[in-house]
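queue> pop job 88
queue> type: inverse folding (structure -> sequence)
queue> payload:
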């Protein structure tokens, strides 16, 4: 059964008499009531079975489930574990207690994470940015941004989250765009929403009448959208902040008009103007890119770039045919084969003076000005750049000079010119809307025959239509369609040139103008065109409705129905310009509006601009209005010259500059804390030159800028209050700069960092949160973290961690990019003796040299040079011992010496193997490990021999010192000499261990030219022998093993990174680990004693233990885990870890400081000591460290090193299954087996004397089908003869096929029915059905067979050598 099946509870006592279960349905429509009764019954059943207080049960249908799926984790029996060390590539870790915990979140998801009881739990994830939040007490959290789904349920950019029930719900159907800002008004239960959208949605694709452009209100009581009184803004809203001192709300963004038309800025409204003629200088000779008119919006060929000839300057020129006053010039660069314009200038033809332009640099986000050397970006992700004219000029033609270029030459993709006046000049070449579709464009529709006639004195062409006077009528007309940006009061005027300039005074008459400037209202006026001089006639003054999909204001010019016949035989009418001037009596609006809801009535307008505004085109990104003054940040030039940051003095109603003229880049966030203003953004200093990298503190009392140490190495988006003495800084940065006294130092901190506002220094967080945080909320019993969060782990711990009885104590390594490959513990003579006299579980983290082991780590630091470093932790600080050039893969500490191997050269020219005297801080002179050509060999594994006399070294090499002995050699600890470890072994050894039979090695090996995965070197021979042939197991190379019982557990990894776990019993291979994901990467396996778990299964079966795997695991359905339990049926995540960049971490090794014993001696769960193998296989090219050990791995051989005899551990009891003398059915061969020595008495029945194994027909000793009673009548010698006659091909011993064995160890019977014997005694075995206890006979000294049962691992098939 998977551990996800069924209801599970947290592995801790319930603190409350009830718990809440939210049952959610997707899609909607489930009958909650019909499901509640079976669910309640299940709860009651669970209560009876688990004795967990059920309390109250609440079932609720909800939009999306975010309640925890409680998880019951196996509990380790940790009575004598002491401290545990985790070495690996990690910066944070958590103990897995909740199914909502994760190692990481995929890029592109923004999440809501809860932190409670030292657990970070993922509550929900959106498929896009969550950039705005607000909170309404007691439990309503609103989240908004740019997403279409949250927890896989459709949600359009805004959602409500109930923090009590932890339930998500939509606000109607959301909004049809992006939300940048939220403000919750608890007094009125309103949520103000600002961003870039047209309107909220009532259904998918349909807008609602409630809510206007870029701003709307959600009424929480009625659950409906409402409009703001001014109907919205004509630009995006980025900030909504309450102004507490004035009981008002401030809206900031990039807008300059309200949709109702009451507020606007005439100078900010820009409209496209179109040239009547376009020319180019030095255009490309190729026809494809030689037409300069193709980059003008109204051109039929628009969209095709225009290029200059290669390597020469040139120009683009536009003639408008009438006077214009350009205010904005929009230019798009060409990106063809790396070509494009780099330097340009804009010339006003006629006066031949250059326009002074201003633009925002797309890279640095700073305002720049230019005249003759303006820079156009070549970034393909930038669609265009707007250049604002600082000093307008009246011109009829402009020229863009191109003086510098990218690649082979310059060119342009589009040019669009805007002015502030709405004036429509009809012409034959401009009859359609702009193809650019950017800005506010007007159009004309010409019907009938017209021509352009030059008017002297007016100096422009005028559209003219002529027809015979005698006809009396004509169908010619011109329809003017102005693009009115905002509703408001307009004065509309028409210009009529005098007739003298065109010699048409005898042809003129009257025209009608049909005006439809508001819906369902049409009026007609008549204008006399017989004027001799130019004249302008006001044709309308009043309200006009803004242009939109539902209504377009128009003016139709045609021959008047009451026209007086012309004096000449030909009649002519003219169609010249019409202008639309908005009434400018209202105050100007630039990017900030103040709204006082309490003052709003039908007769009082409660919204207004600030008394003094920012400059036109300003963008306000952030506002702090918590004090008497309003602090404003964004991208702008203040009225007093300050850049990107300003303060509004409410007392005097003026904008005040900040010291040093502000900051030289965009400001994203401001936060007032006491007398300091904290500022973050895209700047690197003040305008005056003070260096401030993306962060700054402004002392409002002394008007001075201060730093955040050295700042951070990337833009800052948020500064959030964490508590009364700290703030969280968040943004797109990876490092803190200038931490401490060293201004060049960097401290890794990806996405966020904590700043102490009292001591003015960075704080080291005890937990690890990676990514950008957009909001933090501290609730009664938890806190919520929201944003682009890649990972969140309980403990911050770089490279290593120590734990007491599984409680984690992080050890933060100063080498923050350090990947610890291996770890070990060193006891000095003094602390070794003291450690033997104290309870390991009482150790604490306040370590010192007298009572504490030193923690040693070997690993690599990220950098250009391939080097490894060994560092030591003495309880208070890390210290570097030394570095080597290359990789350190394995290390062993014995007494006061450190033995380490890999592929390296150290400072003493020792190659791939070295010994370091820890006590004297010196290297020991030893021979290195080499390949045949003399290059450094590869050491994969070091193993301390149980006799404590040698280090066994395995890898891929030929020589050790001058001795030919690869791939396995023995290093003598006493004389520091190399010895040969057996003959006949070749290949690549990945891991070594020992068994009762001798040394065992796993790898890509051959023995006697026979491929094998595992080989053994028995203690009674010098020849290696094959154990697991490569032809039997999966075709991957094992790289790690441990010899544990007569069944081997294998973990392989294929070239496609697919993981396999299986068992091998000498005959058959069985898959036992298919639940691991394909990308699992196991570095170490351990056996751990289990006190309790959700299921009865154990691994090995029949024990109280489980397998623990560490590395980087993928476990369905939990996801990534760095350590996990395996009970033979299911995997249980145990430890989650993460790197500093948020990717899943990797545990390379778990090590311990327990010096007293193997963990099995501290419990009653003894392991078998007959042969078994655990193999870990991975693609050899990965070159990783692989360790497989019992839980007390560093001191596995401690007992033998202290003089204990080499003998197996005591056996579990034999328990008869019935009254017969047949041994129990053997346990499954899919795992190592041991029966538990629990409460069952250790007794065994006396088996009957077997029959004489003698053929009645031949009288020859041999197999026969005799009864057991026959054995009582024969001597032991005859029984031996019968056993020796049994064919060697017969594997199992039975009564009919007895087999001869010899005692390798002495065994003393402790219970009735057991068989005692001494080393070397022959034993005739008649039953091997159980792999633990066998039945057999021995000689009683008078040739009489004595029956009994005995441990199977005490006998061998050949007589042992004394």
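queue> result:
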């Amino acid at each position: 059964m998977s551990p996800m099946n069924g209801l599970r509870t947290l592995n801790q006592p319930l603190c409350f008499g009830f718990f809440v279960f939210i049952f959610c349905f997707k899609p909607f429509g489930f009958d909650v009531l019909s499901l509640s009764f079976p669910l309640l019954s299940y709860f009651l059943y669970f209560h009876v079975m688990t004795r967990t207080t059920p309390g109250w049960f609440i079932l609720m249908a909800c939009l999306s489930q975010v309640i925890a799926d409680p998880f019951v984790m196996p509990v380790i029996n940790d009575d004598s574990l002491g401290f545990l060390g985790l070495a690996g590539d990690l910066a944070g870790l958590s103990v897995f207690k909740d199914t909502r915990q994760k190692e990481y979140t995929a890029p592109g998801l923004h999440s809501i994470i809860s932190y409670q009881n030292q657990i970070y739990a993922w509550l929900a994830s959106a498929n896009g940015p969550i950039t705005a939040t607000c909170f309404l007490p007691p439990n309503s959290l609103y989240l908004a941004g740019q997403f279409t789904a949250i927890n896989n349920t459709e949600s359009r950019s805004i959602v409500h989250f109930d923090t009590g029930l932890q339930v998500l719900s939509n606000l109607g159907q959301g909004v049809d765009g992006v939300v940048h800002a939220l403000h919750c008004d608890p007094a009125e239960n309103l949520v103000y929403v600002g961003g870039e959208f047209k309107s909220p949605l009532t259904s998918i694709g349909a807008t609602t009448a409630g809510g206007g452009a870029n701003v709307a209100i959600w009424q929480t009581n009625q659950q409906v959208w409402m409009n703001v009184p001014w109907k919205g803004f004509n630009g995006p809203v980025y900030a909504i902040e309450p102004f507490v001192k004035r009981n008002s709300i401030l809206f900031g963004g990039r807008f300059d008009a309200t949709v109702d038309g009451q507020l606007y800025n005439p100078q900010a409204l820009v409209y496209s103007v179109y040239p009547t003629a376009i020319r180019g200088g030095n255009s490309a000779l190729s026809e494809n890119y030689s037409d300069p008119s193709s980059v003008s919006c109204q051109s039929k060929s628009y969209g095709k770039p225009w290029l200059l000839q290669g390597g020469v300057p040139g120009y683009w020129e536009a003639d408008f045919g009438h006077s214009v006053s350009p205010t904005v010039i929009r230019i798009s660069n060409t990106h063809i084969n790396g070509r494009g314009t780099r330097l340009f200038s804009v010339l006003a033809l006629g006066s031949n003076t250059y326009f002074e332009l201003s633009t925002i640099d797309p890279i640095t986000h700073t305002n720049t000005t230019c005249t003759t050397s303006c820079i156009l970006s070549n970034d393909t992700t930038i669609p265009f750049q707007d250049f604002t004219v600082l000093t307008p000029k009246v011109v009829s033609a402009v020229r863009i000079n191109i003086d510098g270029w990218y690649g082979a030459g310059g060119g342009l993709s589009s040019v669009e010119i805007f002015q502030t006046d709405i004036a429509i000049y009809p012409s034959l070449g401009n009859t359609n809307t702009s193809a650019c579709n950017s800005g506010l464009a007007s159009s004309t529709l010409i019907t009938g025959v017209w021509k352009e006639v030059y008017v002297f004195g007016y100096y422009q062409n005028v559209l003219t239509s002529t027809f015979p006077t005698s006809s009396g009528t004509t169908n010619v007309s011109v329809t003017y369609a102005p693009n009115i940006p905002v509703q408001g009061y307009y004065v509309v005027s028409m210009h009529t040139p005098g007739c003298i300039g065109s010699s048409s005074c005898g042809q003129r008459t009257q025209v009608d103008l049909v005006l439809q400037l508001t819906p369902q209202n049409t009026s007609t006026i008549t204008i006399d065109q017989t004027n001799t001089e130019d004249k302008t006639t006001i044709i309308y003054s009043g309200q006009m409705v803004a242009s939109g999909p539902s209504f377009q204001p128009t003016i139709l010019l045609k021959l008047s129905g009451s026209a007086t016949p012309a004096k000449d035989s030909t009649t002519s009418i003219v169609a010249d310009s019409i202008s639309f001037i908005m009434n400018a009596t209202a105050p100007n609006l630039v990017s900030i509006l103040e709204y006082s809801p309490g003052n709003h009535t039908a007769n009082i307008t409660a919204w207004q601009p600030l008394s003094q505004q920012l400059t036109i085109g300003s963008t306000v990104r952030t506002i702090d209005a918590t004090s008497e003054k309003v602090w404003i940040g964004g991208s702008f030039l203040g009225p007093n010259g300050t850049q990107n940051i300003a303060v509004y003095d409410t007392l005097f109603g003026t904008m005040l500059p900040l010291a040093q003229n502000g900051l030289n880049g965009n400001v994203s966030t401001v936060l007032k804390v006491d007398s300091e203003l904290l500022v973050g953004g895209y700047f690197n200093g003040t305008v005056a030159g003070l260096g401030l990298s993306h962060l700054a503190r402004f002392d409002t009392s002394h008007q001075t800028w201060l730093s955040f140490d050295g700042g951070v190495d990337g833009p800052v988006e948020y500064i959030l209050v964490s508590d009364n003495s700290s703030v969280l800084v968040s943004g797109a940065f990876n490092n803190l700069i200038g931490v401490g006294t060293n201004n060049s130092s960097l401290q890794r901190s990806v996405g966020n960092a904590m700043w102490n506002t009292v001591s003015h220094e960075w704080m080291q967080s005890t937990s690890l949160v990676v990514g950008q945080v957009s909001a933090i909320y501290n609730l009664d019993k938890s806190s919520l973290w929201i944003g682009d969060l890649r990972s969140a782990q309980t403990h911050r711990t770089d490279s290593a961690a120590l734990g007491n009885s599984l409680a984690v104590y992080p050890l933060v390594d100063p080498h923050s990019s350090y990947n610890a490959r291996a770890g070990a513990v060193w006891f000095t003579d003094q602390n070794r003796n003291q450690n033997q006299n104290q309870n390991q579980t009482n150790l604490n983290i306040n370590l010192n040299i007298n009572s504490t082991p030193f923690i040693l780590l070997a690993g690599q630091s990220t950098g250009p040079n391939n080097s490894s470093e060994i560092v030591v932790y003495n309880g208070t600080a890390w210290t570097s011992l030394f570095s080597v050039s290359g990789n350190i893969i394995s290390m062993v500490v014995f007494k006061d010496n450190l033995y380490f191997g890999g592929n390296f050269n150290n400072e003493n020219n020792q190659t791939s193997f070295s010994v370091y005297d820890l006590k004297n801080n010196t290297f020991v002179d030893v021979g290195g490990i080499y390949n045949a050509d003399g290059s450094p060999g590869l050491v994969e594994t070091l193993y301390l021999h149980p006799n404590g006399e040698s280090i066994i070294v395995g890898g891929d090499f030929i020589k050790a010192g001058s001795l030919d002995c690869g791939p396995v050699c023995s290093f003598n600890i006493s004389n520091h000499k190399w010895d040969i470890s057996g003959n006949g072994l070749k290949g690549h050894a990945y891991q070594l261990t020992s068994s009762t039979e001798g040394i065992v090695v796993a790898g890509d090996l051959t023995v006697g030219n026979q491929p094998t995965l595992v080989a053994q070197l028995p203690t009674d021979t010098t020849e290696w022998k094959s154990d697991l042939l490569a032809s039997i197991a999966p075709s991957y190379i094992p790289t790690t093993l441990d010899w544990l019982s007569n069944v081997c557990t294998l973990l392989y990894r294929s070239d496609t990174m697919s993981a396999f776990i299986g068992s091998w019993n000498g005959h058959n291979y069985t898959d036992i680990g298919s639940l691991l994901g394909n990308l699992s990467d196991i570095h170490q396996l351990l056996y751990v004693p289990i006190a309790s778990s959700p299921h009865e299964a154990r691994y090995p079966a029949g024990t109280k233990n489980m397998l623990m795997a560490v590395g980087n695991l993928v476990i369905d359905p939990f996801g990534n885990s760095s350590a996990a339990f395996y009970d033979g049926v299911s995997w249980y995540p145990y430890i989650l870890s993460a790197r500093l960049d948020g990717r899943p971490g990797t545990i390379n090794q778990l090590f311990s400081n327990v010096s007293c014993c193997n963990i099995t001696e501290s419990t009653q769960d003894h392991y078998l000591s007959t042969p078994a193998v655990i193999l870990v296989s991975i693609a050899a090219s990965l070159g990783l460290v692989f360790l497989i050990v019992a839980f007390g791995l560093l001191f596995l051989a401690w007992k033998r090193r202290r003089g204990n005899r080499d003998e197996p551990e005591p056996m579990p009891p034999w328990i008869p299954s019935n009254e017969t003398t047949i041994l129990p059915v053997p346990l499954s061969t899919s795992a190592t087996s041991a029966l538990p020595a629990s409460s069952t008495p250790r007794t065994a029945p006396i088996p009957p004397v077997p029959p004489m194994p003698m053929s009645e027909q031949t009288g020859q000793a041999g197999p026969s089908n005799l009864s057991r009673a026959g054995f009582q009548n024969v001597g032991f010698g005859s029984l031996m003869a019968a056993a020796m006659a049994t064919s060697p091909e017969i594997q199992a011993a039975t009564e009919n096929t007895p087999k001869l064995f010899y005692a390798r160890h002495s065994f003393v019977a402790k219970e009735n029915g057991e068989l005692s014997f001494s080393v070397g005694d022959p034993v005739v075995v008649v039953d091997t059905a159980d792999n633990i206890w066998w039945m057999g006979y021995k000689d009683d000294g008078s040739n009489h067979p004595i029956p009994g049962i005995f441990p199977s691992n005490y006998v061998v098939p050949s007589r042992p050598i004394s």
